[in-house]
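Incident review: delayed structure delivery

Summary: a single-chain prediction request sat in the queue longer than the usual turnaround. Root cause was a stuck worker, restarted by the on-call engineer. No data loss occurred. The affected request and its eventual output are reproduced below so the record is complete for anyone auditing the incident later.

Affected input:
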Amino acid sequence: MFSVDDSGHEHIVRFGLESWWLQDPESFISLTPSRYNIEMLEDSELLVISVADAYELRDKSRIFDLTIKAMDRQASSATQKRIHTAISMTAEERYEELTNTYPQFLQRFPQNMIASYLGLSPETLSRIRKNSMSK
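Output delivered after worker restart:
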């Protein structure tokens, strides 16, 4: 999930893996177009549902409602942790946190995307990786 700035640079805000939930709550709640794009890098199944149909389905299906609430809680927790990491850790600490928390990201996503996710240039990420391997 990413946005593109006025200079054409992509800024990755989230990655998703199997059974993860990617959405833009601001867009959903305010009924406005999202500033984010979601790009699938692998074959995927995608649920596309209107806001009205989503609310109707939640009203009619307790299991669907509970599933959405659980996925929203997980996404909210992950977002809060990501914000804390981004504003309180060094680049090296952010990379280490990523490798400890989501090691599968490093195998599944290209390094330039990992760099964008961490708010780093690809060159800085390469240097950090090289330094972490030599320890």
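Verification: Strands lie at 2-4, 10-12.
Action items: add queue-age alerting; document worker restart procedure.
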